[in-house]
């Protein structure tokens, strides 16, 4: 890699890269190729991709089915707008997403990433009530420690102060629930008893709050929140950008508690980790709330240039084909049990405060102050052991591709354990 770079890296304190020797070395680590669960740098060194290239890769790098799907589509057309036109990959993908989604979700609106998928859901929820004559329902409610993306609408419903406090002067007012666990159900119910005529929607990350450090919900909380939303006529938005496509052990986290949200936001693993694509699924009821005469000006005025890009849709279709043909979820179940068993020994390490797991999503919280950069130092050192991870503060995140073999998973865990011992 070049000694000087013009790139400004995301979620990265760039001053460290110019003053810290290890970070400077980090800056020169360039990934050239991928193969299966491995990343290969420009010097030919191999690393287990322990965070699925930021939680997106499912079936491994260079999977022949996805490669072929993109190549086949590329011979037809790379992009065509969905504004007033359509194309077969987007139509077919929408059909297949509705088929595997929780019951009741019948319409698909495409975008480019998790933040935009969430922005679309909150704008639809807000406008639906305006369109249908209930303008008082404007308030969006979110959980403590929530994270839904970095665009301003998504930031408005974010509950992680570190990421969002600097933008407080730019965002709109929402209501953040303060409690956690089962207590949040009581808090939400009390809010609804007083203000349900104002509340437009509740947005949640089902089962696991990822960016907060893999915080796992108690069983039953999601279902209880769904019941309250139904009772008080409030939309439930499920942000499954991180948890969707097998990460929790089922195709979608909502399905573990037989919950059907009013909006389902997906991105990240939608294309198997190949191309940017997101989708916001919603009900026919919501869709019908936007069907008016042209003169009424109640259209959903939202869209992106690359909405429903054919290449990305082709990758997503191939991704879903692999899930079915290779029985990805069935083959994942024993690996989840193996992972849980192997994580037990981590709880005994003196540096470890807590180990959290939901399916193939793991957070190992380490003792230390934020400024000590314990998590970053551990992940940096792991590169010498052939593993690439990225922490959330002092929480080590382990989130490998679902296709990882048991022996590769054992190798990954052994490297992390040895480093924490050291």
Task: Chart the SSEs and their pairings.
Elements: H1 14-19, H2 21-27, E1 31-35, E2 38-41, E3 46-49, H3 52-55, H4 64-74, H5 88-100, E4 105-111, H6 114-131, E5 139-142, H7 152-156, H8 161-164, E6 175-176, H9 183-195, E7 199-204, E8 208-209, E9 215-216, H10 221-231, E10 235-239, E11 263-266, E12 278-283, H11 284-288, H12 310-325, H13 328-343, E13 352-358, E14 361-366, H14 374-382, E15 387-388, E16 395-398, H15 406-421
Parallel strand pairs: 3-15, 5-6, 5-7, 7-10, 10-11
Antiparallel strand pairs: 1-2, 2-3, 4-12, 8-9, 11-12, 13-14, 14-16
How would you sum up this structure, described in words?
The protein is an alpha/beta fold and 422 residues long. It folds into two domains: 144 residues, Aspartate Aminotransferase, domain 1, CATH 3.90.1150; 259 residues, Aspartate Aminotransferase, domain 2 (3-Layer(aba) Sandwich). It is 36% helix and 17% strand. A seven-stranded mixed beta sheet has the order 4-12-11-10-7-5-6, with helices on both faces. A hairpin with a 2-residue loop joins β13 and β14. α4 runs antiparallel to α12. The longest helix has 18 residues.
